[in-house]
Amino acid sequence: MSAILTRRAALIGAAGASGLLLSGCDQLNRSPSFRRVLATAERLNLKSQRLIMGDQKLAREFTAADLSPIFKANGSVNPASDEYRRLRDGAFADWRLKVYGLVSHPLSLSLDELKALPSRTQITRHDCVEGWSAIGQWTGTPLHLLVQSAGLLPQARYLVFHCADNLGGPGPGGLYYETIDLTDAAHPQTILAYAMNGQPLAVAHGAPLRLRLERQLGYKMAKYVMGIEAVDSYANIGKGNGGFWEDHGGYAWYAGI
Amino acid sequence: MAAAQMPPQVIKRHALLTRVTHWINVVCLTVLLMTGAQIFNAHPMLHWGQFGADFDQRLFAMHFPNWATIPGRQDLASGRLWHFFFAWLFVINGLVYLAYGFLSGHFRRDFLPTGHQLRHIGQSVWEHIRLKFPKGEEAKSYNVLQKFAYIGIIIVLPLMLLTGLTMSPGVDTAVPLLLDVFGGRQSARTLHFIFAWMVVGFVIIHLVAILAAGPINEIRSMITGRWVVEPEETER
User: How far is A217 from chain B (nearest CA, A)?
Assistant: First the structure.
């Protein structure tokens, strides 16, 4: 009798406790101050990873034998804006990459002008925040070359990548964008890729130009890049969190894990 | 009516540091397992090797129900936010516990099986199958199977951490050796999943053993440290 009561009480207790745990966690999850406490871990992730990997250490590079047979495409796979369609239909002959903001020499480069610059080719692993990975070969212009020729002003702290895809719906508020800091901008594997697996970059993967940032997750690697703006802060861009998914999904600005 | 009995013997079972780190660990592992299920659901399948997406190198697919995830609905960003905070807490707490366990001699004294225990392991297995636990003097030290369980979890939890870190492109850059040890990011993700179920298995066995051994006495010993030794049954 008492054993049965105890067991029943234990079961009811366990069910009640797990119900409380779940609803309690969901309430905590909605509390901005609790989320701020949790977000201290993001700072720790950034500081500790930068400490152990240094500023210049390269992500592992693979060989052609390691390439994924299928490279999954996520997010926007075919931007719908009239401007992008016009550029795409013209084989991006009218496309220009603009480098502006806190720079001493703003740039406007055609795809052919970019391709004429020194390039880097790397076979790397692409990691999606969802959990999957694919290995691809990327060829593009090292970002630090463009940053050098544009000449950053001393107050510049971040680079903003403005994109052509309206993942957040029509209008300027829905445009994809991302920001990176100058440490990542100076990394040798940070390139603006115009070719993938030896072919011109496909539309699904961000044609004509996408960022490769090999030590972070895929959502940082802006596709359909139209312009690069040097800024001192990203607080006044979008909703102020430093990127599209940071603004719309609450994802971390530092995506090294 | 029972005859006059000796007052029950009360011993100090767990040190303060063990008790504090134990309950912090309970909170951390609960959140880590349930946010881990949330994160898994964002790509609800496993692969083996350096890469894997959809049908590439696919091993297995499943989906955790909402009642098993934190937060309750699909929310990968929040799952990650919680997961990494409690992972840091778990690491700091675990390092304090490990340092204490090694330096104080707690692990050597209480976790290493004795020669006598190893020779009589068969008997221990048979007693555990019947949920019969030692009483009296023998109960004051850990049973050999209990020792193996504790040593096992002290090995599995750091492996959880390492396979988790192997999924980080930043950590892989700093320590590429991890990719070779675990066979790649997707293999590490699969191992992280397997180790998580081993932790769940440990917890289930741990809870069943506590219920069978006397939950009030066992839980009190992990809160106050004081544990009542059940006297040995004497033949009549």
Answer: 7
**Chain B interface includes A181 (CB < 8 A):** no
Chain B residues with CB under 8 Å of A245 CB are: 77
For B53, the closest of A72, A245, A256 (CB atoms) is A72
Cβ of A125 within 8 Å of Cβ of B53? The answer is no
Residue A151, domain extent: 59-248
Domain presence at residue A22: no
pLDDT at site A23: 82
| Residue B163 belongs to some domain of the structure | yes
Angle at A67 between CA A192 and CA A162, to 5 degrees: 20
Q: How many domains does chain B have?
A: 1
B31 within some domain: no
Q: What ipTM, to 2 d.p.?
A: 0.92
Q: What percentage of chain B carries pLDDT values higher than 70?
A: 96
The size of the A-B interface in CB pairs under 8 A is 146
pTM here?
0.93
The residues near A118 (Cβ < 8 Å, ≥ 6 apart) are A141, A142, A145
Residue A216 domain flag: yes
**B177-210 confidence digits (pLDDT tens):** 999 999 999 999 999 999 999 999 999 999 999 9
Q: Which two tokens stand for residue B108?
A: 């050597």
Domain that holds residue B174: 84-236
Does residue A99 sit within a domain? yes
| Counted domains in chain A | 1
Pick from A28, A133, A189, A239 the residue to mutate for testing the B interface (most B CBs within 10 Å): A133
Q: Chain A 89-108, CB below 8 Å of chain B: which residues? A: none
Task: Single out the residue of A219, A224, A223, A211 nearest to residue A241, CA to CA.
Answer: A219
Cα separation, A28 vs A22, whole angstroms: 10
- Look at residue B140 in the predicted model and tell me its pLDDT: 87
Asked if A221 has any chain B CB less than 8 Å from its own CB, the reply is no
Q: Which helix (H) or strand (E) holds A22?
A: helix A2-30
> Does B76 contact A127 at a Cβ distance shorter than 8 Å?
no
Q: Which amino acid is at B75?
A: D
In angstroms, the Cα distances linking A59 to A34, A156, B170 are 34, 26, 8
In a domain, B44, yes or no: no
CB contact under 8 Å between A52 and B82, yes or no, is no
Residue A39 lies in a domain: no
Say what the pLDDT of residue B236 is.
46
Is B115 part of a structural domain of the chain?
yes
